[in-house]
Amino acid sequence: MSSWAPTKYKTTNWSTYNDALKRRGSLAIWFDPEMMWTSNPSGKRGRQQQFSDAAIQTCLTLKVLFGMPLRQTTGFVESLLRLAGLDWAVPDFSTLCRRQQTLNVGLPYRGGKGPINLLIDSTGIKAEGEGEWNARKHGGLKRRIWRKIHIGIDEETMEVRAVEVTGSNIGD
């Protein structure tokens, strides 16, 4: 009895195959020149924000996609804007750090074709304080904070449809 062997293909057009392999590694990032990179005046007292939420979200998205620290992200965005021929200022790392804490990111909503079965679950996450074992053994600080994350997942597509973070005192 013979064992299974993967199918082998013979490459006949090496130049086309080589070009296809090179295209796998290509990267294209487009910046819309009409994008609101700078922020409009808010009408509130104090210094106005220099960069729009879209600019901050763009920088933070690139940070997460490429796994970079904030300082490296500012240099990366600076070079991308220079390559795109755009003379826009880039938020510095402290601005990105400060604004990421209060940035409201809207998750895109794709409507379903009909009713969905939503699977809901929650889990706890330790936010602050030492471990429970250490606190029991040594009588640690009373300041042990837990957060609960409630997640709703579409049963058919396995897409996350809802996320809510609450305190530990909220029940399921």
Automatic annotation (TrEMBL):
Q: Which PANTHER family match?
A: ISSOD12 TRANSPOSASE TNPA_ISSOD12, PTHR34631
Q: Which InterPro entries match?
A: Tn903_transposase, Tnp_DDE_dom, Transposase_Tn903
Kindly give the NCBIfam families that the UniProt entry links to this protein: transpos_IS5_2
The protein's name is Transposase DDE domain-containing protein
Q: Which domain of life is it from?
A: Bacteria
The residue ranges of the Transposase DDE domain are 22-130
Pfam families on file: DDE_Tnp_1_5
